[in-house]
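Marked as duplicate of an earlier ticket. Keeping the data here for the record.
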Amino acid sequence: MTSTSADHLTVEISGHVAVVELNRPPSNFLSLELISSLADTYDRLDADPDVRAIVLAAAGKHFCAGADFGGDGLSQLASAADLYGEAVRIFEAATPVVAAVQGGAIGGGLGLALSADFRVAGPGTRFAANFTQLGFHPGFGITATLPPLVGQQRAAELMYTGERLPGPRAHEIGLADELVADAEIRSAATAFAARIAAAAPLAVVAVRATLRRGLADRVRAATAVEAREQARLRQTEDFREGVAAYGERRPAQFQGR
């Protein structure tokens, strides 16, 4: 087993499986530095012939709670276009990824979970494209990645309402590929990745490239629109109310302006 670490990530390689752990607990909020580090890590693992599959996991309570709308975190939204540019690099990586999704995969955290080939969840997992509940537009390529996975109508419902989807329901509609006990999420994801790694690696990479052909380009086009709409909606009263309500843990009172 080999192990490396960075400010935001740790990487452990055992056999042909690399476990990449987001290390900004408890919520693993998105940042440009985190996504850039993740993209760099994927590039390095792609170049390692011994690594045949990746488990994307997270330390702490949540897989990724999206953007930090509290304190100084809100200012980081100004770099959304830069963050999405780095996110596209994640979709361009060649090695298969299984996401071990514990706790919340919320907002951009859902987008990060959707960048993986497969998702393992538990009863305590929650998925949500909660952007409209903040007066905001979905980002991280969700408008391109969610509809093919769960269907256009289901994706529209999830994005329009912003409602949270528990792990069992996510498994029913195909958003989660495996549902296991919460305590077994990472081990099950690692076993899933090991099954992939046991197949012929050149063939797996070729099949993946065929199945995901054009995906990075679609995400690039989607995030360009998403970032533009986010910048526009960020100037509205509804967005300010949504963020205030989120911080105060109360229902938002949107006025459509």
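See parent ticket for discussion. Strands lie at 2-5, 9-14, 17-22, 53-58, 97-100, 104-106, 118-121, 126-128, 165-166, 178-179.
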